[in-house]
Specification:
- It contains 6 helices and no strands.
- The protein is mostly helical and about 180 residues long.
- Bound molecules: fe (ii) ion (2 copies).
- The site of one fe (ii) ion has 4 residues, from helix 3.
Length: about 180
């Protein structure tokens, strides 16, 4: 199999299914963050902390970039005025930038726990974790309830190709 073939295999699926899968993983990540917060300060699953840290640091910014660079602009172009999406997409995009910053701050603290060290301020970390997962669960719910169903209706086959190509190029740059 050539390099080009293997790239194509990654995106053989509908890119919207890949985004939906990312959302499902994010819901699991939020549940894991709740378990970590509940276990503080002493009942810590180090491996889970390291996994969540990696997800917050690498997967989340890439997903936000997929949405902002491609999914949202395509959907803005195709949405009908009655869809009422314009304000919602802008709000979701503005949440991305604060969530990405907050996620990287939390990831640093979780990496410390992942290395088997104690949190210097478990109360603050618990507060940050809860603030993040409560807010992020709502973000994913909005996207799953409003954005994804409309994307499946409105985006054309060419749009889906463009989305897949953009996601592929985002991963090449990140890798
Ligand atoms: Fe988003
Ligand atoms: Fe999303």
């Amino acid at each position: 199999m050539t390099h080009a073939d293997s790239d194509r295999v990654i995106f053989a699926r509908n890119p919207l299914d890949m985004i939906a899968h990312a959302h499902a993983v994010q819901v699991q990540m939020c549940d894991a963050m709740e378990r970590i917060a509940d276990g503080l300060p002493d009942d810590i699953d180090r491996r889970l902390c390291a996994q969540v840290a990696a997800c917050l640091q690498f997967d989340l910014p890439l997903h936000h970039y997929d949405e902002e660079s491609s999914l949202f602009p395509l959907l803005k172009m195709r949405a009908l005025p009655d869809d009422g999406l314009e304000g919602i997409l802008d709000r979701l995009a503005s949440e991305h930038s604060s969530d990405t910053d907050f996620a990287s701050e939390i990831a640093e603290s979780l990496e410390v726990l992942g290395q088997g060290k104690k949190s210097p301020n478990p109360d603050m970390l618990g507060y940050m974790l809860r603030g993040f997962f409560e807010r992020y669960r709502r973000h994913v719910q909005w996207e799953n309830a409003l954005v994804m169903p409309l994307a499946r209706i409105r985006l054309t086959a060419e749009d889906l190709d463009a989305l897949a190509a953009s996601m592929e190029s985002n991963r090449r740059q990140a890798g």
